[in-house]
Structures are given as C-alpha cells and as structure tokens.
Amino acid sequence: MSDAASERLRAVRERIARACAAAGRSPGEVVLIGVSKRQPVERIVEAVRAGVRWLGENYVQELKEKREGVARLLAPEQAAAIRWRMIGGLQRNKARAAVELADAVDSLDRKSLALELDKRAGDAGRSLDVCLQVNLSGEPQKGGVSEDELPALLAACEPLEHLRVVGLMTVPAADADPEASRPAFARLRELRDTLRDAPGGRDLRELSMGMSGDFEIAIEEGATLVRVGTALFGPRADPNARSKETP
C-alpha cells in the first residue's frame, strides 16, 4: 500500500469529517467517490488498497479500460468490492456499455437517454440507480437538464421499470472561491426536497455535488456524494492523452 495514497485519503477524510462536524452531520452520511479520470491504473489501485471503494469515470471507454486494468492488479475479491459510477455526459449509443460497466449513472439529463438506459438495463436483467444532472449555471457547454425541465424529466422516469432515480447531481460554474458554489448546492438541495413529493420523486435522497476544491461547502449544504479527484489521486495526466469518446 502506498504511503502517499494513504495520506491523501486520510487528508480527504479529515476534511469530510470537519465539514460534517461544522454542519452537525455524521461523516457516515457522505460517500466519497474517487474521480479516477485520467489517472494511471497503478495510482487507482493504490487508492483502493488504501480504502477507496467508489470510483467515478467520465468516459465509457476509459471506464472499461480502468475496470479491466484494476482487475488485473487486484485480488478478485478486492476488485469485486469496487463500485463504479458513470459521472460524465453519456451518449445514447454508449448506454448499453454504461449499463454493463457502471453500478450507477449520475449524469442522466434527457428522456431519450432514460428510455435507452431502461431498455438496456432490462435486457441485462438488472435495475440501475441514476441521478438526474441539473445544469444550474446555465452554461451551454455543460450537460444537465434545466431547473425548469427537471420535473418533467423526473416524471418521465417514473414508469420505467429498470431505472430508479435516487438523487440529483450538479456541477457549479468554476470559481476560485469555494463559497461561490454555495448557492448552487443549496438550490440543488431545495429541488430534491421539493421533488420528493412529485411524480417520480419517491426515491430521491442523494445529492451528488462538490469536488476537490469545494466539497466542504457541498457537505454543509447537504451533499451525500462528493466527487474528489486530484485531492485523492494527485495531479491528472496530460489531457491530450485522455481516452476519447467516439460517436
């Protein structure tokens, strides 16, 4: 086990614990997702050996490569204990692979994708937990359903037999000041709490929000899933070496 990996995990867990204490919450209410995007397999394995159990990937092809690479380097029981989340934008033609590879999808943002994921999950004989991604910043380059369209998407998922909408996810506008993310985090919590009584909202409980620079603020506003990359794994590889999605 790498001392560096253990130290990074310890530091992140301490930050989570302090944020929970400030908010009057238990650290057990917050799940740490290690965002392994553009991280070498060896570093991911070190983090898993240190105690990371949930991993998140942005690209289906990279998720496939990471799952296979991690499985080669870990004992079978260790590899089987890892849970993977798809946290990046997802194309419909990648839905089948996502269902095969991921334990949950946190980036569902349109009805057509919901229908495809439901079909593929049914074909695989499984149920898939999903979070609806909400674009609260209004940035056109970001995925996510708008706040106004969110209730309709949630209702459209209600009759789907193989999808279970368990929460909401958002990525605030980038800002050097972590406090700048607070309004978006607070708004996502309000939306979840309001929509629990709406069609399709009966299982809403998760709030996937907060990354390395602002997850303490997210926890104070109710985050149950925090997505932490560089603080947990160290600097990412050159983005030009990243696995690319293909249409």
Describe this structure in words.
This protein has 247 residues and is of the alpha/beta class. It has one domain (3-232): Alanine racemase (TIM Barrel, Alpha-Beta Barrel), CATH 3.20.20. It contains ten helices and eight strands. It has helices at residues 3-23, 41-50, 60-73, 76-81, 95-101, 111-123, 150-157, 182-195, 215-220, 230-233; strands at residues 31-35, 54-57, 83-86, 104-108, 128-133, 163-169, 206-208, 225-228. The protein has an eight-stranded parallel sheet with strand order 7-6-5-4-3-2-1-8. Strand 5 (128-133), helix 7 (150-157) and strand 6 (163-169) form a beta-alpha-beta unit. Helix 2 (41-50) packs across helix 3 and helix 5 crosses helix 6. The chain is globular. The relative contact order is 0.16.
Features:
247 residues, alpha/beta, TIM Barrel, eight-stranded parallel sheet, 10 helices, 8 strands, 42% helix
Radius of gyration: 17 Å
Taken from the alpha-carbon principal axes, the silhouette is: globular
Largest sheet: 8 strands, parallel
CATH-level-4 superfamily name:
Alanine racemase
Q: How much is the average pLDDT?
A: 93
- Helix proportion of residues, in percent? 40-55%
What is the highest CATH level, the class? Answer: Alpha Beta
Tally of domains: 1
Quantity of strands, as a count: 8
Oligomerization state of this entry? single chain
**Beta-strand percentage range:** 15-25%
Q: Widest sheet: strand order?
A: 7-6-5-4-3-2-1-8
CA-CA gap between termini: 38 Å
Structural class: alpha/beta
